[in-house]
Design a protein that fits this description.
CATH architecture: Beta Barrel
CATH class: Mainly Beta
Strand order of the largest sheet: 1-2-3-4-5-6-7-8
Largest sheet: 8 strands, antiparallel, barrel
CATH topology: Lipocalin
Distance between the termini: 38 Å
Strand content: 35-45%
Number of helices: 1
Oligomer: single chain
Shape: globular
Number of domains: 1
Length: about 140
Amino acid sequence: MLRIAGLLLFALLFAAPLAIAQSATPVGVWQDDSGRIQVQIAPCGEFLCGTLLWFRWPNDDQGLPVVDLKNRDPGLRGRPLLGLVILYGLRRTGERTWEDGKIYNPEDGANYHANMSINDDGSLRVRAYGLLPIFGRTRVWRRIR
């Protein structure tokens, strides 16, 4: 009995750091705090990128895929939003932080600077800003896969 308890304790000691290490990556599928979009984050070379995987209203009134109508570049306004890379260039700067990226907001057609970090509860803190991080907006995303 003592041997089994020792084995269980040993397994728990090694399983806890493994679980923490697995949760310290943003690679996966995340839903924003409004519940309107899901973004799949994956490696892009040495950086991380995020692709718009799902959103609440993917089709327009005619049943056609919603396109990037508000893009500041008229040549890109016909591209579908579904499957669009909206987060890119994030480089790891710490155990749970990524910085120096960009995030595209289809609602206003603008690109912003982006940083992100994993919170203690496993959620993802995404900060988008113009000139300085202090003048930005933070969203908290929840992992769904």
